[in-house]
């Protein structure tokens, strides 16, 4: 088998004119394209020859480890194995890891939408902005993913837009390269990793890192920062989450795009496990329904949506009327005040005696009289 570096050269070189079959890495991955290189190594798009049809595209991250000592290899592999157990729609799936030459290789899910940082830059350059609904949707997905890993005592330690990926416009947390597993009962992992701009104050001060250090909220004290699940319970976020669930269930029902449908069903299940709402629980039944039942559900949902719009309209009208009433009251009150003052003015001029000029004593005269008495 060709050395990993040689295989890499074939792909990153200008043209691979050879007619011989492309060499496989770990006997199953064919390099297709270099996606980029990061602080820890190079990232490639690969085709997994042993994957099911339609699931071949994966990402290979090659981390150069130089003279890796065997114990470290074991540790890294253990960590990778644990990460491979993470299974959540908002987390980049970790498929496998192995050591090839001097490289520690990680195989993960491929996110064709690239990273969020790239997306933001792209929008910025085009002078475009993201709609609020999109930001909230991504924020909720992010919270679900963070909560999932924190429940499993796994810290990310480097959450930032560059490490958040997009697949079918769904957000996925990735690049756990620097994450560490919390060991035993100790909640603070003291190794310093991460990117300074996104670091929490406690990580910067080397005061350790716990689940709260993964939260981007602005309170300096970790204990005062909410956890991901607490943020999910904020009424506004909870309301948005329910809207999102309705949308996802519609995607599932329409079933236009199989991949999207699978992802949506996956997210619905993940949320259902987390937030035990009556409506969400019912959604899991969607998969088992007959087309007729689905149609009925869709009608009920449409009616619900209509009712929600109507309620909003009524609330707006009520608000508008209220405002108008207040304005009217204010105007009447001002009128009344003006009248009262006017009446008061009238009465004042009628009843009070005419103002009298204030008389000042004649100081000159006072002086002369004092002279008279003093003498
Ligand atoms: P960094 O060290 O700066 O975080 P990475 O090594 O994580 O960089 O990534 C390098 C490049 O590969 C980036 O452009 C990133 O968007 C891309 N990339 C990494 N992982 C994936 C993935 N799972 N799917 C698609 N692109 C990826
Ligand atoms: Mg990265």
Describe what this molecule looks like in 3D.
The chain has 375 residues and is of the alpha+beta class. Helices cover 48% and strands 13% of the residues. The chain is built from eleven helices and eight strands. It has helices at 4-12, 70-84, 116-125, 132-151, 201-204, 228-232, 235-254, 258-274, 278-283, 291-351, 363-374, and strands at 24-25, 29-37, 41-48, 57-64, 94-100, 103-109, 164-167, 170-173. The protein has a six-stranded antiparallel sheet. Strands 7-8 form a two-stranded antiparallel sheet. It is globular. Residues 1-18, 178-192, 276-281 and 343-375 have low confidence and may be disordered. It binds adenosine-5'-diphosphate and magnesium ion. Magnesium ion (MG) is lined by residues 38, 162-163, 175.
Mind sketching the topology for me?
Elements: H1 4-12, E1 24-25, E2 29-37, E3 41-48, E4 57-64, H2 70-84, E5 94-100, E6 103-109, H3 116-125, H4 132-151, E7 164-167, E8 170-173, H5 201-204, H6 228-232, H7 235-254, H8 258-274, H9 278-283, H10 291-351, H11 363-374
Antiparallel strand pairs: 1-2, 2-3, 3-4, 4-6, 5-6, 7-8
Helix pairs in contact: 7-8
Bound molecules: adenosine-5'-diphosphate (ADP) and magnesium ion.
Adenosine-5'-diphosphate (ADP) is lined by residues 35-36, 38-40, 43, 59, 92, 108-111, 114-115, 118, 162-163, 165, 174-175.
């Amino acid at each position: 088998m060709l050395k990993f570096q040689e295989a890499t050269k074939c792909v990153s070189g200008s043209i691979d004119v050879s007619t011989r079959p492309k060499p496989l890495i770990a006997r199953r991955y064919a390099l297709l394209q270099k996606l980029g290189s990061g602080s820890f190594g190079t990232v490639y798009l690969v085709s997994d020859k042993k994957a099911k049809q339609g699931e071949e595209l994966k990402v290979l991250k090659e981390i150069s480890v130089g003279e890796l000592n065997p114990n470290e290899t074991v540790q890294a592999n253990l960590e990778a194995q644990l990460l491979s157990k993470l299974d959540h729609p908002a987390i980049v799936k970790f498929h496998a890891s192995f050591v090839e030459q001097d490289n520690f290789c990680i195989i993960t899910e491929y996110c064709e939408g690239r990273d969020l940082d790239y997306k933001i830059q792209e929008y910025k350059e085009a002078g475009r902005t993201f709609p609020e609904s999109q930001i909230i949707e991504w924020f909720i997905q992010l919270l679900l993913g963070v909560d999932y890993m924190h429940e499993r005592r796994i810290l990310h330690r480097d959450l930032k837009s560059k490490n958040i990926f997009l697949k079918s416009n769904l957000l996925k947390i990735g690049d756990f390269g620097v994450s560490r597993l919390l060991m035993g009962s100790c909640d603070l992992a003291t190794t310093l990793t991460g990117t300074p701009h996104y670091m929490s104050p406690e990580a910067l001060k080397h005061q350790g890192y716990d689940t709260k250090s993964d939260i981007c909220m602005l309170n300096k004290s970790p204990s005062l920062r909410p956890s991901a699940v607490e943020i999910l319970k904020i009424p506004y976020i909870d309301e948005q989450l329910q809207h999102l669930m309705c949308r996802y269930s519609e995607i599932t029902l329409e079933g236009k795009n199989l991949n999207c449908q699978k992802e949506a069903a996956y997210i619905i299940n993940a949320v259902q496990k987390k937030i035990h709402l009556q409506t969400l629980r019912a959604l899991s039944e969607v998969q088992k329904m007959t087309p007729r039942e689905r149609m009925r559900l869709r009608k009920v949902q449409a009616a619900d949506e209509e009712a929600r719009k109507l309620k909003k309209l009524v609330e707006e009208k009520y608000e508008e009327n209220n405002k108008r009433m207040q304005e009217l009251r204010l105007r009447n009150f001002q009128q009344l005040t003006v009248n009262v003052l006017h009446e008061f003015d009238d009465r004042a001029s009628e009843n009070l005696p005419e103002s009298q000029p204030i008389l000042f004593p004649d100081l000159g005269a006072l002086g002369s009289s004092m002279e008279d008495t003093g003498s």
